[in-house]
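User: Could you go from structure to sequence for me? I need the amino acid at each position, not a summary. Structure tokens:
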């Protein structure tokens, strides 16, 4: 009989995130080509997060009742179908029909994107409380690596297979992922485990948030994700303005921002895959979460005030004109370290504070809170950026710093002593 495996669940999430990374960077240009402008592109983006917000708790609750494996299989098959629809939308001559099909494909992808909840519950099932934060870091590492390889594969498939190529490649990867999970992914949920109560969607939120420490962690994840989505949605605009890049007429300028995101992803993957366990043992989860927010806030205070210099090249980096880019890379490195240190200890501690039979439901609520943050964050940030570029970054920095206070006051001593240091503050 197969045994549950951290490696297999890591591969499942990793391949899923590669497919996601292939598609997401292409949505703005594809949407514009089909005639979408401004808020319509925002709606296409938001459709994914809205559906993920709705369905993350549902997938988690279903996995508590029926097991992790069948839910992962269903959601992975659905993700493959969503990318088939995306590929079809990019090949339609009727632009209106193509846009509607693209929205439907992103909504279906958002429905199935709740499988990250189930993957985290799977890890909670097969790890001890002492190792949980460390192993939750593998989910973050899969995110980082997926967002590094995904855009690269998307660019290659677009160049060699045409407009529909990225969608078909993403669908093929998800199909491979389904077969991988079907044949080698074992069930992790114990057959005799207690069953979570069946609650309506809003009642599940109320039940989860009613527990003070669990509710606080969900709010912290919402705020951290909100601030990071502000960064994601405004960095290209900010760098373009501050470093005089011409995205419309210069392909090199556009690729520069892609390289910056790859750089951030690499640092995040290294941190989440390498040092999380040791830091949790040394500091405990609450202090590590607080440190991550402080590092992120510090970088937010600096990013909007960096600028100048020539187009980014390796030659420029070693010259005087490249000094602003060096500073930007250092600050983005600080941000990447900070943001990558948030998720693993937060979800590790959240899991340790949750009964075994409610792991999926609770993690689902937290993931849904993150999806909600990704709906509001970009709208908030882009609106303020037009008024005053530093403002969204400084507000987010203040929010993150203020959040560290309740973390240290209310979460020290949370969780069992076996959780590898979560009692220490």
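Assistant: Here is the amino acid at each position, in order:
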């Amino acid at each position: 009989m197969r045994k549950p495996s951290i490696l297999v669940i890591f591969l499942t999430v990793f391949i899923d995130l590669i497919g996601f990374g292939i598609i997401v960077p292409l949505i703005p240009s594809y949407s514009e080509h089909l005639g979408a402008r401004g808020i319509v592109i925002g709606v296409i983006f938001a459709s994914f997060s809205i559906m993920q917000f709705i369905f993350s708790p549902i997938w988690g609750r279903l996995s508590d009742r029926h097991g992790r494996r069948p839910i992962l299989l269903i959601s992975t098959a659905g993700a493959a179908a969503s990318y088939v629809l995306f590929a079809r939308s990019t090949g339609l001559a009727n632009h209106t029909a193509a846009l509607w099909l693209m929205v439907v494909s992103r909504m279906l992808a958002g429905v199935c994107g709740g499988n990250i909840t189930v993957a985290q519950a799977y890890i909670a099932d097969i790890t001890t409380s002492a190792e949980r934060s460390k192993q939750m870091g593998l989910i973050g590492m899969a995110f980082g690596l997926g967002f590094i390889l995904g855009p690269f594969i998307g660019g290659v498939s677009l160049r060699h297979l045409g407009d529909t190529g990225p969608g078909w490649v993403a669908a093929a990867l998800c199909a491979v992922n389904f077969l991988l999970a079907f044949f080698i992914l074992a069930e992790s949920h114990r057959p005799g485990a207690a069953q979570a109560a069946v609650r309506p969607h809003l009642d599940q939120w109320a039940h989860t948030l009613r527990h003070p420490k669990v509710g606080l962690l969900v709010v912290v994840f919402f705020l951290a994700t909100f601030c990071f989505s502000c960064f994601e949605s405004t960095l290209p605009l900010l760098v373009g303005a501050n470093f005089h890049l011409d995205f419309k007429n210069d392909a090199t300028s556009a690729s520069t921002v892609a390289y910056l995101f790859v750089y951030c992803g690499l640092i995040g993957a290294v941190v989440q895959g390498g040092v999380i366990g040791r830091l949790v043992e040394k500091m405990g989860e609450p202090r590590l979460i607080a440190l991550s927010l402080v590092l992120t806030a510090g970088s937010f205070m600096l990013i909007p005030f960096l600028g100048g210099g020539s187009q980014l090249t390796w030659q420029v980096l070693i010259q005087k004109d490249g000094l602003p880019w060096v500073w930007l890379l250092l600050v983005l490195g600080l941000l990447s370290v900070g943001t990558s240190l948030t998720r693993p200890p937060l979800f590790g501690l959240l899991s340790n504070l949750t009964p075994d039979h409610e792991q999926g439901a609770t993690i689902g609520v937290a993931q849904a809170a993150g999806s909600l943050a990704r709906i509001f964050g970009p709208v908030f940030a882009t609106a303020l950026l037009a008024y005053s570029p530093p403002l969204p970054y400084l507000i987010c920095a203040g929010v993150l710093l203020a959040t560290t206070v309740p973390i240290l006051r209310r979460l020290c001593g949370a969780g069992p002593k076996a959780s590898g240091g979560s009692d220490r503050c």
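One structural detail worth keeping in mind: Residues 415-423 have pLDDT under 50 and may be disordered.
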